[in-house]
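Quick start: what a row looks like.
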Amino acid sequence: MPVARIASINLECSDPAVLAAFWASVLGGEVMVETPDFCAVQVDSLYLGAVRVEDYRPPTWPSAERSQQLHLDLSVADLDAAEDEALRLGATKEIEQPSPDRSRVLRDPAGHPFCLRA
């Protein structure tokens, strides 16, 4: 029996409302908490939080100058369609794509890298 389960994952950012809206749309969740400094998106039994940090600077990738800090891998049925929708919702695509046939590296509006995986 596990000792614990993941209840939430929190991402630092400069604008919690923008980041929460993005992830709610991408993951089909709902923004359940919204304050100027913290927002939380519920997806099934998991909460994805967006936490305001003064002077926030996004992670760098693939450079180690400011490490990824966190990296989400998202499973998708149709890689091209999922990429198109994520970009429409506000993601940006990384220039470096290590395995574009199997995954796509994108960034959320706060600059956190994440992968879509077929």
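That is the whole record. The chain is about 20% helix and 35% strand. The beta strands are 8-13, 30-34, 38-43, 46-52, 72-75, 92-93, 103-107, 113-117.
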